[in-house]
Amino acid sequence: ATQTSKLLFTKVADAIIMNAAVLQDWDGISLVAISYAFMKSRHEGNELIDLIGNEVLCRKDELSLGARELANLAAAFSYYHMIPCSKDVLELTYEKFQPQ
């Protein structure tokens, strides 16, 4: 990624981290989209991704995601495998993929 892109992702991450309560207002698709965008940019947004992962886990019973969103969530948390909640998010995506 270019230096400008890295700076933009850093500023976005910092802004969200400073006001983490905003994550509660985001729908599941938005949470997935942000984590996937950070993964695709190869940004080291570990603190932000951890916040998103924990928000996803808090909503696991009410989270309604399609196959694409679940795949993107799994991809992002596979990439950020060193984050403490990563294993739990990956297990959640596996459970959500199972037929009901």
Q: How confident overall, as mean pLDDT?
A: 91
Estimated helix fraction: 55-70%
Shape: globular
Strand count, sense and barrel status of the largest sheet are: none
The quaternary structure here is: single chain
Structural class per helix/strand content? mainly alpha
N-to-C order of helices and strands:
HHHHH
- Radius of gyration (CA) equals 13 Å
- Give the CA-CA distance, first to last residue: 40 Å
SS elements, strand count? 0
Secondary structure elements and their pairing?
Elements: H1 3-18, H2 28-40, H3 46-58, H4 67-79, H5 86-97
Helix pairs in contact: 2-3, 2-4, 3-5, 4-5
Provide structural commentary:
Helix 2 packs antiparallel against helix 3 (46-58) and helix 4 (67-79) runs antiparallel to helix 5 (86-97). This protein has 100 residues and is mostly helical. It is built from 5 helices and no strands. The radius of gyration is 13 Å and the shape is globular. The N and C termini lie far apart (40 Å). The model has no long low-confidence stretch (mean pLDDT 91).
Provide a concise account of the structure shown.
This protein is 67% helix and 0% strand. It has 100 residues and is an all-alpha fold.
